[in-house]
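Trying the structure run again after the queue cleared.
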Amino acid sequence: MIGTVTRRVRVAVDAMGGDHAPTSEVRGSLQALSALPNDLDLVLIGRKDRIDEITKDLTLPPNLTIIHAPDVVTMGDEPATIVKSRKESSLYIGLDMMRQGQVDAFVSAGNTGAVMATATMVCGRLPGVSRPTIGSFFPTQTGQPTLLVDVGANVDSKPRFLHDYAVMGSIYTEMMLGISSPRVGLLNVGEEEGKGTAVAQEAYGMLKTAPINFAGNVEGRDILKGTVDVVVCDGFEGNIVLKFAESILGFLKSRFRDFASRSIMNKLLVGMFTPVLRNVLRGMDYQEYGGVPLLGINGVVIIGHGSSSPQALENMIRRAVEMVQRDVNGKIREVLSPRSPSKVET
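Done. Tokens:
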């Protein structure tokens, strides 16, 4: 794979971040350590009494370190409050360890806004990055996933931000999926160059000269069709698309249950096709991809869904290891840092 360098990676996991914390975090971490014994050293950060309760009957591997963090970040905590008064939380401790170079990456299924804002304040941005962004993979008809950026980091993006999302998304897709010169599209209400808002039109002009393979405007239907490899949009639209897509799997399962409940014959039919349906729908399950990358931060951060299972946590840790080994941030720094600081909007 492009840019891969075999090396051990030290990953910090926020054990108290998710809805099922710390159970999912502990079990997912142990699964990852078992799957990647030669690539991974793991630091599990959280309330030690809760972690010990889960692991009391287990023999823990030597490449696992547990750090006690007595405080927990809640959904109502403001990022500024976390940095000032939540320094004993698993979120702050993990990100501060990454800032100091004690770990290579940080994984959390906690509040997305809190993770993103705290990571930005504690670790800072990569040189030349106007705004960090969050990207999420979507399954497509082609079998090759499409990366959508931004999916909620910034809900009022300027053209320069969209330019940087496109560059970072292109680099991430190329280095993580091995796609040479990935096609990048700008989400819009039509394919013609003059479509959309003033921001979209200005961004279009910037993307034409960006160091990417720009394919022009794309529409919402193109995401699942796999028309391009990367779709760029403002976080407002991107988050709506993401949350709608997350609801599709539950909707389909509900329809199948409703169909099966109508008769014995229907139940038998659903039962016969369940293995096929499960395989077809697997690509729509966020847990298959694990978490989403926070691109543009001076460090590797993977953010997961609040209800992440142990399998999702394992996949999040895997993505973190891959990002470090393939030096995605090094490439982003190489492409964006030469830009004059005076040209960066803040």
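Confidence is low (pLDDT under 50) at residues 340-346. Worth checking whether this holds up in the mutant runs.
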